[in-house]
Each structure stands twice: as C-alpha cells, then as structure tokens.
Amino acid sequence: MKSIIVLGCGIAGLSCAVALQDAGFCSIRILARELPPYTTSDVAGGLWFPYKAEPMHRILAWSKVTFQEMMRLRNVPEAGITMTRFFQLFPKQLYRDAWWSGAVEVYRVLTEAEIAAEFPNLPKGQFPSGFYAEVPIAEPHKHLPYLMQRFRARGGTIEHAHIHSLEEVAEPHTIVINCTGLQAKYLVGDDNVFPIRGQIMVVKNTGINRSITIESNDERSEYATYTIARSEDVIMGGVAMENNWETSIDEATIQGIIARCASVEPALAQPIILQHKAGLRPGRTEVRLEAETLSNGATVIHNYGHGGSGYTVNWGCAHEVVHLVRVACSS
Fold this sequence. Notes:
Elements: E1 3-7, H1 11-22, E2 28-32, H2 40-43, H3 56-73, E3 81-90, E4 107-110, H4 112-118, E5 129-138, H5 140-153, E6 157-160, E7 174-178, H6 184-187, E8 193-204, E9 210-214, E10 223-229, E11 233-239, E12 241-242, H7 251-264, E13 273-284, E14 288-293, E15 299-304, H8 310-330
Parallel strand pairs: 1-2, 1-7, 2-6, 3-9, 7-15
Antiparallel strand pairs: 3-5, 4-5, 8-11, 8-12, 8-13, 9-10, 10-11, 14-15
Helix pairs in contact: 1-5, 1-8, 3-8
C-alpha cells in the first residue's frame, strides 16, 4: 500500500487524515507549517453554515455529508460539537428557501411575525424575512485537538515542516493530499487563491442560546454581522475583506462589530471580551478538489480553497479525497 502524506493540519488536513484511517489506510503523515492552536482553523467560529465558497452544488453535497458526521460526533463529548438555534435574517422579502436547506434536519422559513417575536428589540419591518435552522458548531479549541489525538492514537504522525514545492515530498510511491489552504497560492502557483480577511471577538457567554447571521443589502460589503453562541463563549463578527492580507487587530473594526451585533443581540452591547482574533480565510474562485499526476508519476490530491466554509464541508471533502486515494491506489 502506498504511503500517504497530508500537507496541512487545519480542519481540512485533519479531517482527511482521520477519514483515510477510517477507510483502512495506514502509514499516514501530516506535515504542516503551523499546528493547532496556531492554524487558520483555530480562528474560525466553527459554525456549520455554507459561506464564501463555490461551486454551490458541490458545496451543498459536501455540507450535507459534514452535517451528518457532526451530528454523529455530538455523542463524543471530547469532540466539542454543540448545537445552536440559528437565525439568518434578511433586509428584504424573500420568496425562496435557503439554498442549503436540504442539508439540515430542522429548518423553516421565518415569518415577519416570528422574527418580531424572537427579536422584539428590532425596528418593525427591518428584517421582513429569514430562515431558522438547528445546526452544529465544532468548537475549534476542542475539536482540532480531538482530531489530532484520534489520528495519533491510530499510529498517525504529525510533524512541523516548511514545504516549498510538491516535488519535495511527492515521490512515485507516495500520495500527497494538499490541504494547505491559502498557502496553495504559492505552493502550486495557483492565482485563483486569495485571502478573505476576518476579524472576530470572543466574549463570555452570559446565557445566549442562539446564533445569528444578518445579511446585507450590499452583497459586495466587506462587513459581516454574526454571532455564534458556543458552550462557554460567543463569537462576534466580523468582516469579509477579499484580497486583504492584514492579520493585525483593527480597533475601529472592534467598535463596528459591537455596534452591529448589539443591534440584534442587546446582551452583547457591553461584552466581556476574552480575546480578539484575526485571520485569512482561504478563498478561491472555486474549491479545488481533484487528483493530479505529477511528471514523476506521483499522485497529488488537492483539497483547498474552502473560503469561509471549512467547518461546513470538511467531512464531505474528506470522503471525496478517500475515494480519489482509492482510485490512485488501484491504478
């Protein structure tokens, strides 16, 4: 059996490594420049919600698989999977279901009366429509260490490494899984990869039991308003700035986040701030998930460009990677 190297130790790389072990593959190594808690995946809120990723039909299929796997992992306490009541509110009337509705188990279209009852502080008619769903959250500070422990317990190894080209590791008898996220822009010279800057606040959860996303009238807006209620904290966000490489904390953005989030969740008007985080989502024109044969005959399976949907598509993508590995091994 061929040996397998996974490049990247974020949610994509760890999910692929674990799924390959589940499928019976052994001799798997993870090589990564950064390990948890210092990966881009550690900055994420961990909410299941398709965001900033294409193409829609593949995202939906992967999201459905991931939803089901996260629901199973709810029964493993150390996996750090919790459920949340999720509200997506719109400033205009909609006449369709959410495109992702088929992937979840509990979903309904909200009436304006229901929105008014759930959010009595909002001005009448500000959000005339919306969706409600019950979705899982993978809390990164628990979930990533759980996946690392699960992988290592079955003989997997994780190593720090700075890989500058696929040729450094892609030998003819080796299958390489490229889960390098934003770094794929340089590793494989992919000009379709770009950063989507995010900035969030982690604040103490004083009893909030719902998560909210507010959609903007301007689809090109760099600002995103959302709250993610986790077991011990709440994520307040944020921004979605394409082609912005800045990872330092912007003070003006903090005040904007508080104002926008408090407008819909008044309990967050004076939050007990635990941490500020900024990171770069790995954007791409479309997720790249495909096999490539290098000139030396080695197989590389690319799995990157998940945008803001890393925790929403990870298991679906991992299962497809397993399929491509099986094909490579049989050829």
